Amino acid sequence: MEPIMSKSAAADRVVAARIRRGLTWAAIADALGAPLVWTTAALLGQHPMTAEQAHQVCDLLGLDDAVAESLSRQPARGADPALMSDPTIYRFVEAISVYGPALKELIHEEFGDGIMSAINFKVDFARRPDPDGDRVVITFDGKFLDYRW
């Protein structure tokens, strides 16, 4: 019996098929009726898709059932350490390193003792025109989880 394709191998096939078919991540998300950032993360291996979503995207991209099977499996979440040095990804690490302590203080001041969930969570991405150069707008929207003793 063939082993199940790894999430990274499935992601590589998805990326290649997306590029070769000239599709954007937004077009794929629209076809699935799912949020853009979530869809992109799922297709890169960070979230499981339903079997229906996995087959739908594989039909769209001309990929086989082995890829769909992998896309519907539970992932091991997190970033490959080699990716952490990518300049775009590192800027996020840098931003959290600089602003994370202030955001933590502000969350505690506004909500009390607790954290922002990364499970009950939404993230959005947008481009905002600016005369000084377009801006990248990232919105994290997580449920507040209070510590209960």
TrEMBL record:
Keyword terms of this UniProt record: Lyase
Catalytic center residues: R91, E94, S117
GO MF: cyanate hydratase activity; DNA binding
Enzyme kind, highest EC tier: lyase
InterPro entries: Cyanase, Cyanate_lyase_C, Cyanate_lyase_C_sf, CYNS_N, Lambda_DNA-bd_dom_sf
Segment forming the signal sequence: none
Reactions it catalyzes: cyanate + hydrogencarbonate + 3 H(+) = NH4(+) + 2 CO2
Occurrences of domain Cyanate lyase C-terminal (ranges): 78-149
Family statement: Belongs to the cyanase family.
Alphabetical list of PANTHER family matching this protein: CYANATE HYDRATASE
Described purpose of this protein according to its UniProt entry: Catalyzes the reaction of cyanate with bicarbonate to produce ammonia and carbon dioxide.
Protein name in UniProt: Cyanate hydratase
